[in-house]
Description:
The chain has 373 residues and is mostly beta strands. It is 8% helix and 29% strand.
Amino acid sequence: MTRSLSTQASLLGLCGGAVLCAACQGPGDTTLPALPDWSDGYESDCCPGDLNTGTGTGTGTGTGTTPIPTTEFGLFAPQDVGYLTRIHQTGTTDTPCTATPGTSTADYVALDCTLETNELDLYASGLVYDLTVPEGACDYVMWSHYQYEAWEVGDGPSTVSITIDVDGSIVSETNAIGGMPYCEFDYSYWDDSAPNCCLGSFTIETTDLSTSTTSTTGGGDWGGTASQCYAGAAYIDPDLIVDDKGWPMSTYVFLNRASYYKRFSWGPLATSFGTNVNLANYYDPADHDGAEPAGYTGDYAVPTYMIDCYDNAEELLARIDLTVREWNEVAQFDADGDPNTTGTEPLTGLPLNDRQDWADATPGSTTWIHDAQ
């Protein structure tokens, strides 16, 4: 299920993250004592599936030279990576993904933005975008990255029933195979390389026909780990930090109202995956029975790349939600036309859609991508 802004914000208050000190002193302030070096961040215990589960380390300091002016709170497409991308407010073609945060929650600003990129650029070169924060805007900036449920997570049955005859042979069984407890969400049962996504506990009821008695053994644990069943940008961030349950953690950077710059960067998907799904989070409800991909319905799915601006009391002043959309043809990308053209290339006969996104990786609303990424 997709959580509301209020739910996301409340989870932020409950869960920790990596913290970086980017501006421990305000501009011109020489009276504050030096603070410890937090550049490596820290891990904290956190609720399973912190909704704000991004990772990374801050590179800006609030001072010095940055590639672009830090005069606005916003995201920008880099001009120095050798290929073209575009970032704009969603629903527009050229409105910049920028805003001016207010000084209180009454002036809260929300930006919904889209990054446009050609599919091979994303697959073979990766994803890059720049964040700037103006002086006086945020006491802290926090980011979390997109993640989805690749393997369906579920609670296993509470009871396993086995009936044996006078020879000890199994006559019938429920929630067991060959006398071994079985849960449909434990994918490792069939494939050692797949995760166990079955949660909860169970008891075993064994009926012995030779004595007409039933014995009960408790304490069974399905043994699944939900965090191992998720994937996405949060999991392949070069600066990934996870908590003790395996969930990617949010990153908080202390700005002290100084200006700030950071470049977010992911490497090529081509080194590990066959599709663009791990970085391209865009989807069209029409491709999913009017809803969302099944992977977005997981309790701990994070559907966007999210960047928050907070005051000292963790009151939200501004938020950016970023969607990454990949395009099948350069001509359509250049003309801002149709990102999802179909058909075949005239020379090779190969599909115009060379790398799958959510539309074709998991059509409908009940298909889980599993390891077909």
